[in-house]
Design goal:
The chain is mainly alpha-helical and 262 residues long. The protein folds into 3 domains: 42 residues, no CATH class; 90 residues, putative rabgap domain of human tbc1 domain family member 14 like domains (Helicase, Ruva Protein, domain 3), CATH 1.10.8.270; 84 residues, Ypt/Rab-GAP domain of gyp1p, domain 3 (Cyclin A, domain 1). The protein contains 17 helices and no strands.
Length: 262
């Protein structure tokens, strides 16, 4: 039993046999309650479960605890930020209307989904004035709101993924985007090392990685990849961090399509 009076099993209990649907839910509920213990006890098993896919109906709650945003410290601040004016409001409004336009949640002009997305982006632009607002951020926040999270919960997760050392994702969006430049350098190195034939083929046709990969990085693949895949990428990103996850998936995507590209 944990400190809140909720009964949880030790992680080793879930490793003994095939759990079945009910056991799966029990595993994730227990992990939500005691996430730090689960990750410290047998991290390889926990990562294996996460890589296998978090159940959709529990995904938002798991993301919340993995990101470290499972507290309400930002709730009051969020309400205060919404009372202020942001210099980016017109730009955010334009981008909100172009974010996941085929998703019913966001398709209605000035509907509930678009309002939530606008509020969250406005609040963040005031919270982090150095970043303010950058095109593409809506495509990162959208998948958070799709997980039955409130605006405040999604805002807290978004803030934590930008500013905690574990994620260090903010540098992708600060002036001059040093994080993007570093990731592009790393991506080119891995592409040349692991897929040399494709690397040379693209160069001969004047296709440089900034033409396609920078958009992958800045939207975490959400701009033009199927959402079920995007959710799975987010699962792993919250567990392992954005840098290694994004680079790994980028190379995997090219490897999978190498024969079509050559």
């Amino acid at each position: 039993m944990d400190r809140k009076g909720i009964t949880t099993k030790p992680l080793s209990e879930f490793m003994k046999s095939d759990m079945g649907p009910e056991g799966e839910d029990e595993f994730w509920e227990s992990m939500i309650t005691e996430f730090k213990d689960y990750f410290m006890d047998i991290p390889s098993y926990t990562l294996q479960k996460i890589r296998g896919g978090i159940p959709h109906h529990l995904r938002g709650r798991v993301w919340k605890v993995m990101s470290g945003a499972d507290n309400n410290q930002l709730d009051t601040l969020y309400d205060q930020l919404l009372e202020e004016e942001s210099p980016f409001e017109k730009q955010i409004l334009r981008d909100v209307a172009r974010t996941f336009p085929h998703m019913s949640m966001f398709s209605e002009k000035k509907g509930e989904g678009q309002k939530m997305l606008f509020n969250l982006m406005k609040a963040y632009s005031l919270y982090d004035t150095e970043v303010g607002y950058c095109q593409g951020l809506c495509f990162i926040v959208g998948p958070l709101l799709m997980q039955r999270l409130t605006e405040k919960e999604a805002f807290a997760i978004f803030v934590h993924t930008r500013q905690t050392r574990r994620y260090a994702f903010r540098s992708l969006f600060t002036p001059r985007m040093p994080g993007v430049n570093l990731m592009m350098y790393q991506f080119d190195y891995f592409l040349k090392t692991y897929l040399p034939a494709l690397y040379g083929h693209l160069l001969r046709h004047n296709v440089v990685s900034t033409m396609y990969a920078s958009q992958w990085f800045l939207t975490i693949f959400a701009y033009n990849f199927p959402l079920p895949l995007v959710f799975r990428i987010f699962d792993i990103l919250f567990a392992e961090g954005p840098g290694v996850t994004i680079l790994r998936f980028s190379i995997a995507i090219l490897r999978r399509n190498q024969s079509r590209l050559l």
